[in-house]
Specification:
The chain is 75% helix and 0% strand. The chain has 22 helices and no strands. The protein starts with 18 loop residues before the first helix and ends in an 11-residue tail after the last helix.
Length: 470
């Protein structure tokens, strides 16, 4: 395969960075990046539809809010190409610092953005621009963090080390949603705890965006202490770095770009169905009557012809259910690394993808108004999410040689975000509506994406034993 040859004739040199520094730097950056993303995702469901995209039809407002959420995915491959070029050309450290700063600035500015009532549709446009900035930054973040982990990993433990940047996703989710829950508890609705208070809608939602500045400062302090990995430094010293890594990866490694993109596809679709779609479904009223009463209590217009039912859970209750599920996400992210190191990335992911395909058939019987079944559904889904997400931190970088590894892994990861995550919330919303409130078709969508990932895995080769320094 094009990534490298197998085998190491010499004992590996001591890593350039201590283990604790590698783990902390790869973990804290992705935790901050995913925190910023989840903060936006939560606000996109709770407050952005009314604050930035007001409409007489709540579904139209929600679709517009989801469209800006998905727009960031389009910016991610652009960020992957830009940050990937600099990461392969000049080094991982400076690129990682730049991506973290870009993400932090964009998120902070969202926290001070005027709403539609203040500046009209300019508010929606500015929100879209800052959302694109978030996506641009995340396009370069994940790959760099994965490379810091895997290029500094001991022999035989690359997948284990590669799970630490992946662990940033569940940690970021828990911190972001935990903060929203805390603010909601401090600013409760006077009559209905399932609704957001006027203070929360007016200014409370801004706090998580502003808080990201504190997290970014901590992340920068950790990352500025890194030195370049031995793999990159060897290539730099031997003159193997490419003037145009982007052209190199498209010309000579296009097959692995395609395989990497589709290997990641089911992971992305599952990821956004479990976080974004389930929050929307779970907090939607369970009947027309309940929805109409809630609209009347809030003094908002209601059109029964555009309504389709959901789980009927309160926001606080459902987020707590999500957080329980995400704990399993984090546990199985870590568990999957040693499994992938022992049995191989390909074999491990084939088994997990088959389980994801089977999980798609559980949407209809388990995701609904029954709290016990819905909680079990969330635990199963997030367990599979951790199991499939963990090995990606090693697999995607291993598909490419050192001098194009940042570009190749970043492009695969982020093009998959367009095919999977960018459209997943919108497709799921339409399928949910088409099925009159049933999540069955949403599950079938996951099944179809799982089949595409399974095909890509069957066409790929095992990367467990490659020499990462080549």
């Amino acid at each position: 395969m094009s990534a490298a040859t197998t085998g190491d004739s010499k004992a590996p040199a001591a890593p350039a960075n201590p283990r604790s520094r590698v783990i902390t730097a790869s973990l804290i950056g992705t935790t901050i990046e995913f925190y910023d993303f989840y903060v936006y995702a939560t606000a996109a469901v709770l407050v952005f539809p009314t604050l930035f995209f007001p409409s007489a039809n709540p579904t139209t407002s929600l679709l517009a809010s989801f469209a800006t959420f998905g727009a960031a995915m389009v910016a991610r491959p652009i960020g992957a190409m830009v940050f990937g070029h600099f990461g392969d050309r000049y080094g991982r450290k400076a690129t990682l610092v730049a991506s973290l700063l870009t993400m932090g600035i964009a998120t902070f500015l969202i926290g001070v953005l005027p709403t539609f009532d203040t500046i009209g549709w300019w508010a929606a446009l500015l929100l879209l621009i800052l959302r694109l900035g978030q996506g641009f930054a995340l396009g370069g973040e994940w790959s760099g963090a994965a490379l810091v982990a895997t290029e500094n990993a001991p022999t035989g433990k690359r997948a284990w080390y590669g799970t630490f940047p992946q662990l940033g996703a569940p940690l970021g989710f828990i911190i972001a949603n935990g903060l929203f829950l805390l603010i909601n508890a401090m600013l409760p609705h006077p009559e209905n705890p399932a609704l957001q208070s006027e203070a929360f809608v007016a200014w409370g939602w801004r706090i998580p965006f502003l808080f990201s500045a504190v997290m970014v400062i901590v992340g920068l302090w950790v990352r500025l202490r890194l030195v370049e990995s031995t793999s990159f430094q060897k290539n730099a010293d031997s003159g193997k770095l490419k003037k145009s890594p982007l052209a190199e990866v498209f010309r000579f490694h296009w097959k692995n770009l395609i395989l990497g993109t589709f290997i990641m596809l089911a992971t992305y679709v599952l990821f956004y169905l479990m976080t974004n779609f389930t929050l929307t479904f779970g907090t939607r009223a369970s009947s027309v009557e309940v929805a109409q009463k809630a609209a009347e209590a809030a003094g908002k217009p209601f059109d029964p012809s555009t309504f389709y039912p959901g789980g009927g859970f309160g926001y606080v209750d459902f987020v707590l259910m999500l957080i329980i599920g995400v704990v399993f996400f984090g546990i199985f992210t870590l568990v999957s690394g040693p499994l992938a190191d022992r049995f191989g990335r390909r074999k491990t992911l084939i088994v997990i993808t088959l389980l994801i395909i089977g999980f798609g058939f559980l949407f209809e019987p388990m995701l609904g108004t029954d709290k016990g079944l819905t909680q079990a559904f969330l635990i199963i889904g997030f367990t599979l999410m951790g199991a499939t997400f963990g090995p990606m931190g090693a697999l995607l970088p291993e598909l490419f040689p050192t001098n194009v590894r940042y570009s190749g892994s970043a492009i695969s990861y982020n093009v998959s975000s367009i095919l999977g995550a960018a459209v997943a919330p919108l497709i799921a919303l339409q399928l949910w509506q088409a099925a009159d409130g049933s999540p069955f078709l949403v599950g079938m969508y996951l099944v179809a994406m799982g089949v595409l990932t399974l095909i890509a895995l069957l066409l790929s080769r095992e990367t467990k034993d490659i020499n990462i320094d080549n």
